[in-house]
Amino acid sequence: MGITKTESYTDQTLMLAGLFKALGHPARLAILQYISKQSSCICGDIVSELPLSQASISRHLQELKTVGLIKGEISGTSVCYCLNNEHIPYVSQFLIQFQTPNNPTCCS
Amino acid sequence: MGITKTESYTDQTLMLAGLFKALGHPARLAILQYISKQSSCICGDIVSELPLSQASISRHLQELKTVGLIKGEISGTSVCYCLNNEHIPYVSQFLIQFQTPNNPTCCS
DNA sequence: TAATTATATCGCAATATTACGATTAAATAA
DNA sequence: TTATTTAATCGTAATATTGCGATATAATTA
């Protein structure tokens, strides 16, 4: 149905899935890397960095903001975006459980 | 368009985005956690663990397998799935760049 | 061989995502 | 006030995802 049975999962699982989902698009990864590369806040010159329209970049930025991966602040006519790394540790921590050695007797 | 301009990104970015995307659904996170919880290979009793139909679970398993997050091996009439942690370090490594301290002069 | 079991795939419907041009809104500059 | 600049939002079209019932496939068992 293209709709997810969200009521069946814990809040934590839903939150993590939301973060992963936001990270699950190459444009958003590129945006995050570009913002992270800058030492200070950058503004909408992401548009000139990526081969997407202003409208599309803006939508991706909103998605990243919604899940809390970036913050934005109006400054004049432009908007300054920067990383919000608050949630990154949860994501990294979650992945650790999958870093145990592969079971050698299993699915060779 | 619901289609991504994949030709604009590096293979590495596309691969990471694919992994994040696969992780970006609560059912798939739940499946991974369930598989990881078992000490040995488990089979399709994931179906009885999650509130999804056999067809839907099977689809999610295929997606996880496609991006290489799990491996599957036929054993009798059933199929044994287990984690493939091969790609996890890339994902974790990628996230490290975002773990630098937030710029305090930026987007208070 | 026929039935059973376990899983994958097909076909479909509902919803979501992606992208963009056009428009709107809000702040600044002329 | 009127332009200009910058970014968000609207509307639309194309494609993707999610989910399930039904069916197919493949190995096992009777």
What does this molecule look like?
The structure is a homodimer of 108-residue chains. By secondary structure, the first copy, chain A, is mainly alpha-helical. The first copy, chain A, has a single domain, classed as Arc Repressor Mutant, subunit A, CATH 1.10.10. In chain A, 47% of the residues lie in helices and 11% in strands. Chain A is built from 5 helices and 2 strands, in the order ααααββα. The first copy, chain A, has helices spanning 11-23, 26-37, 46-49, 54-66, 88-96; strands at 70-75, 78-83. A two-stranded antiparallel ribbon of chain A has the order 1-2. In chain A, a hairpin with a 2-residue loop joins β1 and β2 (78-83). Chain A is elongated. Chains A and B meet through α1, α2, β1, β2 and α5 of A and α1, α2, β1, β2 and α5 of B. The structure holds a DNA duplex (30 and 30 nucleotides).
Quickly describe the structure:
The structure is a homodimer of 108-residue chains. Chain A is mainly alpha-helical and 108 residues long. Chain A is 47% helix and 11% strand.
Structural class of chain A: mainly alpha
- Major sheet strand order of chain A: 1-2
Question: Globular, elongated, flat, extended or rod-shaped: what is the shape of chain A?
Answer: elongated
If helices are DSSP runs of H or I spanning 4 or more residues, what is the number of helices of chain A? Answer: 5
Text of the CATH class of chain A: Mainly Alpha
How would you state the average pLDDT of chain A, rounded?
90
Helix content, binned percent of chain A = 40-55%
* Quantity of strands of chain A, as a count: 2
* Number of domain units of chain A: 1
How far the N terminus sits from the C terminus of chain A, by CA atoms, comes to: 35 Å
Second rung of CATH, namely the architecture of chain A: Orthogonal Bundle
Largest protein-protein interface: A-B, 58 and 57 residues
- Percentage of residues in strands of chain A: 5-15%
Low-confidence residue ranges of chain A: none
H and E string of chain A: HHHHEEH
Note the quaternary state here.
Answer: homodimer
What is the name of the CATH topology of chain A? Arc Repressor Mutant, subunit A
